[in-house]
Amino acid sequence: MSFLVCNKHHEHFIKYCEDCHENLCYNCEGEHKNHKKLLLSDLTTSINEITNYLQEMKKEIDIFNNYIKGLINQLNDLIEAVNVYHEINNNIIKNYELKNRNYQILQNIKQINDNREIYKKINNINKILNFKEKLYNIFAFYNSQQFLLDEFDEMVCIQNEHIQTVASSSSTKEEDLKGECREGKNEF
């Protein structure tokens, strides 16, 4: 007999009783009238939707990681440019007697500061900071979804153990287990 078929009524399971932690066929459902029940198809659909969503999120995170790497490279270039700028200023201070030359260098630095590329790099730094905040939110969401999946996996394992226990028990033991379950004594 398949573990997806009720041993008592020989029909496929359609629901899961959350109160008794057992699968129910159409005929078993009446015995659990006031219990909280879930459609098994809903559980499968929810798991598939969450799995698909998490796979899409992982793809987006990979894209974001590549984007961040590019921005980090641009930031390193900008840091190098700032270091060069700092070194130029130190040389200007040390070589005061080259006043005319220093004036030309300062004019060049002013032109560099006016250059649109530097503004673009500064804008990219702002984007990195905004992206970093969004990425932290994505990671927090991903971790919460992973926690739900782990909890669901544990619930499925418990359900499978219960199904195997019920399937391997004799019909007398099944009646004893169902009686204990209805009285709230059965713990899984």
Low-pLDDT runs: 184-188
The end-to-end span amounts to 23 Å
Q: Name the quaternary structure.
A: single chain
Helix content: over 70%
* Structural class category: mainly alpha
Q: How many separate helices? A: 4
C-alpha Rg (nearest Å): 33 Å
Count of the separate structural domains: 1
Major beta sheet summary = 3 strands, antiparallel
Shape: rod-shaped
How big a fraction of the residues is strand? Answer: under 5%
Q: What strand line-up does the widest sheet have? A: 2-1-3
> Helix-strand pattern, N to C?
EEEHHHH
β-strand number:
3
Fold and architecture overview:
- This protein has helices spanning 40-94, 99-114, 116-168, 171-183, and strands at residues 15-17, 22-24, 37-39.
- The chain is rod-shaped and about 100 Å long.
- It has four helices and three strands, in the order E-E-E-H-H-H-H.
- The protein has one domain (15-183).
- A three-stranded antiparallel beta sheet has the order 2-1-3.
- The protein starts with 14 loop residues before the first strand and ends in a 5-residue tail after the last helix.
- Helix 1 (40-94) runs antiparallel to helix 3 (116-168).
- 5% of the residues are buried.
- It is 73% helix and 5% strand.
- It has 188 residues and is mostly helical.
- Strand 1 and strand 2 form a beta hairpin.
- The model is unreliable at 184-188 (pLDDT under 50).
